[in-house]
Design a protein that fits this description.
single chain; alpha/beta; FAD/NAD(P)-binding domain; seven-stranded mixed beta sheet; 6 helices; 21 strands; binds NADP nicotinamide-adenine-dinucleotide phosphate
Length: 329
């Protein structure tokens, strides 16, 4: 996953950085979100030599998540706090962690070669790919121009900068609605702009949002332009039923319209994909490439923390079997 960070750095967990990487591993795990962390725990507890690589840090989307209320054992915990617990847990049983970007993965003589942006490469018998998905863009005028100057994809990273100001949130899924809830506690006014009257988000979240006095639902509208002089000052929105256009004055716009799978590093391996480029996996998290497993958002299943963690565990247990017995199917 590529995390777009700007304005305010998040406090990251302390990372145990690995310096020498020209080594052979049983398992290399790409991505340290819930899927990767869970895979690392299961893999290292099976005594497999395990390396986790993430370009950013431990936690994946947790680092930009608000309050998590649906992960068993936690009735309410902030994403970055849970990420810190994940980091401690991930390395507890011997998994190593490297902060670097995986740029390409190839396979020679039954061994994966994982090339890193630093110029190093790592060899591994198995790869568990938990590369996640990145933010989708609206692709409207002003979106790129005002990135970091009012446009953001992460309310929990940047919401603080809009204290007592007016903001918009675009989208109708869990991310958009939970962003709007979070921002309603910080900002003077929050517009939730969604292209349909029905919401994809959990009903409980939408109901909570409707109770907020400082949230205005702008539906069914799409954003057609982001305007300003040096920073965001307003947006143009168009009604999808009658084409009426209006201008909303605001200081910030949070775009939460979903994600697209992050599979560039796998293109040389040509794994089978579906939909927008999600990796096809079977019930043991095996992809179409022998030795390559996948878990988490990249598999196109429900994008839930608990699902990613479960998939990571299955992938690691399957990988342990494969490393020990060499039998793929
Ligand atoms: P999502 O569920 O895919 O929702 C994306 C939303 O953006 C949809 O409402 C969609 O509208 C809208 N959208 C897409 N393209 C658009 C465009 N070009 N212009 C305007 N609107 C557009 O994405 P998400 O909310 O990021 O959630 C992703 C996954 O993470 C989901 O499975 C979600 O349940 C999960 N998640 C879970 C939690 C949690 O457990 N607490 C929190 C956040 C996310 P339509 O509805 O019309 O398609």
């Amino acid at each position: 996953m590529i995390v777009v960070l700007f304005m305010m750095p998040i406090t990251l967990p302390k990372i145990r950085r690995k310096e020498s990487v020209r080594e052979l591993y049983d398992v290399v795990i790409v991505g340290a979100g819930a899927a990767g962390v869970s895979a690392a725990i299961y893999s290292s507890r099976r005594n497999l030599r395990t390396l986790v690589i993430d370009k950013f840090g431990v936690g994946g989307k947790l680092l930009e998540a608000g309050l998590i209320e649906n992960y068993p054992g936690f009735t309410g915990i902030l994403g970055p706090e849970l990420a810190q617990l994940f980091e401690k847990h991930m390395t507890k049983f011997g998994a190593e962690f490297l902060v670097d970007e995986v740029v390409n993965i190839n396979k020679f003589n039954g061994m994966f070669i994982v090339d890193l942006a630093s110029g190093n490469s790592v060899k591994s018998r198995v790869v568990i790919y938990c590369g996640g998905a990145e933010h989708r863009k609206l692709n409207v005028p002003g979106e790129d121009k005002f990135l970091g100057r009012g446009v953001s994809y992460c309310a929990t990273c940047d919401g603080f900068f809009f204290k007592d100001k007016i903001v918009g949130v675009v989208g109708g899924g869990d991310t958009a609605v939970s962003y709007a809830l979070y921002l309603s506690d910080i900002c003077k006014l929050v517009y939730l702009i969604h292209r349909r009257r029905a919401f994809r988000a959990e009903d409980i979240l939408v109901e909570k949002l409707k109770e907020k006095d400082n949230v205005e639902f702008i539906i069914p509208y799409i954003v057609t332009e982001i305007r300003g002089e040096g920073k965001v000052e307003s947006i143009l929105v168009k009604n999808r039923e009658n084409d009426a256009v209006m201008e909303l004055k605001l200081d910030g716009l949070f775009i939460a319209i979903g994600y697209k799978p992050n599979i560039n590093a796998l293109l040389s391996l040509k794994p089978e994909t579906f939909g927008a480029g999600y990796l096809k996996v079977d019930e043991r998290m095996r992809t179409s490439v022998e030795g390559l497993y996948a878990a988490g958002d990249i598999t196109g299943f429900e994008k839930q923390l608990v699902v990613a963690a479960a998939q990571g565990a299955i992938a690691a247990l399957s990988a342990a079997e494969y490393v020990r017995h060499g039998k793929w199917k």
